[in-house]
Amino acid sequence: MPLQSSVRASKKPLRLDDEVRFLRSWMEKPLHMGAVMPSGRLLARTMAQYVDPEAEGPVIELGPGTGAITNALIEHGVDQKRLVLVEYNPGFCALLRERYPQAKVVQGDAYRLRDTLWDVMKSPASAVVSGLPLVTKPMLTRLKLIRDAFIALAPGAPFVQFTYSVAPPIPKSLPGVSTEASERIWMNLPPARVWVYRKG
């Protein structure tokens, strides 16, 4: 094979590599994955817009996978040093450490958030951004997750979650919690919506 063809063949698009990684992980453990493919750029940007890049405190991302939403957060102006990336899959953790060397990558279970972050957090978080497959979990598990997230968050800071479901991933009627939702993002595959929860 000519050298030029060899170089061209070795430069596969990064997005395609990420899609292959996601698909392989989903096939191995479908209920651990929030999606079959990485989040689309429009969905990732929509999630990032709810995070204040000037706020103090870390930004926690749950289930970053290959970093689609992580990229959007950085493009939105969030300093990589403020990112705490909580990922269950060890292969994705290795990839995230390579791609985001200044971020704090924590290999652990986001559904046991207090245990996972107990020795990591030094100050309240300014946002929690989640790509977890909440709708595949029992409602009590979802409520425990958001309760633990609110313990880690500064008052009024957002818990940002996307879902492909038409229904909200967490009920809108939680006492003392305000809820807002984006328009449905039809350009994402599958279409998705972003939900934002804040506790005063």
Automatic annotation (TrEMBL):
GO terms for biological process: methylation. InterPro entries: KsgA/Erm (IPR001737), SAM-dependent_MTases_sf (IPR029063). SUPFAM superfamilies: S-adenosyl-L-methionine-dependent methyltransferases. It comes from the Bacteria. Keywords: Methyltransferase, RNA-binding, S-adenosyl-L-methionine, Transferase. One of its GO terms (molecular function) is methyltransferase activity. This is Phosphatidylethanolamine/phosphatidyl-N-methylethanolamine N-methyltransferase. The lineage of its organism: Bacteria, Pseudomonadati, Pseudomonadota, Alphaproteobacteria, Hyphomicrobiales.
